[in-house]
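A quick aside before the break. I want you to see a complete sequence-to-structure record at least once, exactly as it would be stored in a machine-readable document. Don't worry about memorizing anything.
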Amino acid sequence: MRIDATDVRKAYGDVTALDGLTLTVPSGSTFGIIGTNGAGKSTLFRLLVGHDRPDAGTVEVGGTDVTEDGRRIRERVGYLPEHVGFPDGLTGREVLGVHRATRGLPKDGRTAEAIARVGLTPDEADRRVSGYSNGMQRRLGLATVLLPDPDVLVLDEPTAGLDPRGVDEFHAIVEEITAETDATVVFCSHVLGEVERLCDRVAVLHDGRVRAAGPVDELAAGADDEAPAATEPESTRGTAGGSGGLRAAFRDAVDDDAARRAGGDPEEVAP
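That is the input. The structure line, written in tokens, reads:
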């Protein structure tokens, strides 16, 4: 399912979160969103799932304006926020049962299917959430998102706080989902190595606008692989997975923007 955001503007008081953002996410793609803190990523995600409305511009999911039919959008878009939490007294299976009932979904085996898809064993699913590791919490969160079989998955920093094994296992789950379904996946991460591993396209957000976008391999190949500049967020430095080219593309996009704002030549911005 295709996503189109056109000249989107959103402000909260005196703070401008999105400043004329335009972005297209092709149907069936796995699309990475990268940017510094405050770039507008979380605001964009809230608009995509119909939790907020743009001040100007349009956001469409599958041709439907999110401001006109937010309920329908939420039925088709699954959103996994960076921080998830569940009642400690419930088991994982009970959590999924509550989510299924809340959404009015039928009892048709989808709970067991979601449990299996995210790699939770039956014993783990029947364990109280209070005993879950961070990785199991993330898996359970993804399972709740998969229950309605969404056309779009929005994953906000889904591997934050996971150990290396947990990260690799979560990557494998996402790769399996993208291989077996036609879902469009929007993936936000500060770890550029996992963006290169999981995503076929990427956009760089900075100060509420898209500063660069395109196929991951083309952006990575088109940028010089140099040492990280001062403008690059610490969390994107030194990541694994051959992300040097993507780091350079990120840096170039941010530095070009800084030069434009200063009225100078982007090539003259000091590293």
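Two observations worth writing down. Residues 1-76+153-221+244-262 form a domain with the Rossmann fold fold (CATH 3.40.50.300). The radius of gyration is 19 Å. We'll return to this after the break.
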